[in-house]
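Fill in residues.
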């Protein structure tokens, strides 16, 4: 493989805390993807309704919005490592609840929705802390490579977890999937314990509504950042097909393929991550965000049109790769331009941009599937995504013109971090 395509391991080599955080995330993500597949499968078995499966997104939405914004303020005001550890422990307890419910003679439906809502709240508090910790433990110029490595961590779990979940759920039962998830959270906490404390910056604001509003004002002043949020929100809302995959597998008479369908999107992301060395040499990040999101929608539309399950799997893999390209460049823009004292609050807003879309997308895809059919739900969403990206490209000139070499925010933050590194030397 040409060296230009090889994964850049510089952040892994330079930062022990990054290695610990990466290993912790790899393990917990693997278990989370087991539950990611098991939960909709269990709802499908208990209700037989595409709308009921899609409703998971609805119950996750309110906690996501409320705790995402407040979680960003907490990440700026508290020790980030401590916040990450406690929320990880809470996620483990929720996995235990799912395990207990699955082992009952007659599992109940309502705990699935309650756990989904509480899990959404915990993730919404944790993710801003995780995202804002990264620039503290990784050198400024290593941030694009760190984003690719973090994407690799997510996609390894995203490929292996769903693929294994399909087998485990089919042959061993839902309890084994939930039990494995619980175990991974316990192991993840061991790695997190070795990460150095990361206290709030001395100029950090208190975690209140005023602090949240300050972060929102800063985001509003950065039109290119707003563009990245709009692109991801539109792409995920219009073209996220995951809620209807159990029903698509049934329509294709390939129930065996469900785990592979869930794994295909992360597999595409994994392939991009493994060949992501080229991303460090791209500077027009905004254009790549829009283009790759449009290609995501086109691939999803194709998956809704074709009737062969192997072509569906291929197109979902292509879609995952396009989504990863968009994510890498969104992350690079965020991490290389946002000041440390605002990083947690902006990470909370970013969480909404890349999480609210998928949750609403589950509701949209499930509702359209119930009304117009599963295949129509998938291909129509993909085509709408392509059209939305064309419209956003026209309406967001600041995003399309963004260049990491000349952006005033990137230049200022690069100089600020260089000065801080010189002071520590």
């Amino acid at each position: 493989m040409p060296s230009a395509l090889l994964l850049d391991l510089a952040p892994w080599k330079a930062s022990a805390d990054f290695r610990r955080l990466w290993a912790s995330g790899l393990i917990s993500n693997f278990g989370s993807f087991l539950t990611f597949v098991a939960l909709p499968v269990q709802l499908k078995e208990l209700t037989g309704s595409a709308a009921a499966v899609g409703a998971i997104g609805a119950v996750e939405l309110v906690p996501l919005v409320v705790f995402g914004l407040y979680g960003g303020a907490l990440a700026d005001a508290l020790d980030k490592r401590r916040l990450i550890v406690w929320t990880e422990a809470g996620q483990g307890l929720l996995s235990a609840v799912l395990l207990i419910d699955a082992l009952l003679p007659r599992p109940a439906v309502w705990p699935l929705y309650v756990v989904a809502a509480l899990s959404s709240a915990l993730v919404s508090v944790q993710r801003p802390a995780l995202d804002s910790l990264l620039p503290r433990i990784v050198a400024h110029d290593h941030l694009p490579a760190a984003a690719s490595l973090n994407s690799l961590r997510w996609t390894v779990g995203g490929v292996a977890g769903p693929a294994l979940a399909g087998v485990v759920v089919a042959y061993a039962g839902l309890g084994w999937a939930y039990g494995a998830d619980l175990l991974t959270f316990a192991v993840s906490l061991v790695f997190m314990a070795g990460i150095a404390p990361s206290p709030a910056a001395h100029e950090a604001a208190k975690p209140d509504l005023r602090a949240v509003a300050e972060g929102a004002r800063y985001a509003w002043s950065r039109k290119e950042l707003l563009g990245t949020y709009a692109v991801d929100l539109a792409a995920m809302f219009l073209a996220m097909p995951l809620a209807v995959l159990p029903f698509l597998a049934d329509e294709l008479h390939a129930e065996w393929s469900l785990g592979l369908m869930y794994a295909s999107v992360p597999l595409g992301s994994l392939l991009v991550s493994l060949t992501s060395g080229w991303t460090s040499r791209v500077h027009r990040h905004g254009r790549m965000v829009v283009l790759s999101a449009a290609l995501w929608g086109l691939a999803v539309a194709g998956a809704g049109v074709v009737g062969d399950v192997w072509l569906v799997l291929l197109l979902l893999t292509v879609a995952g790769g396009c989504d990863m390209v968009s994510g890498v460049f969104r992350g690079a823009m965020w991490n290389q331009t946002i000041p440390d004292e605002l990083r947690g609050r902006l990470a909370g807003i970013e969480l909404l941009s890349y999480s609210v879309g998928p949750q609403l997308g589950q509701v949209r895809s499930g509702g359209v599937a119930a009304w117009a059919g599963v295949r129509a739900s998938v291909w129509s969403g993909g085509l709408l995504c392509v059209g939305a990206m064309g419209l956003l490209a026209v309406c967001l000139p600041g995003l399309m013109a963004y260049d990491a070499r000349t952006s005033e925010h990137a230049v200022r933050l690069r100089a600020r971090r260089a000065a801080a590194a010189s002071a520590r030397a």
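The chain is about 80% helix and 0% strand.
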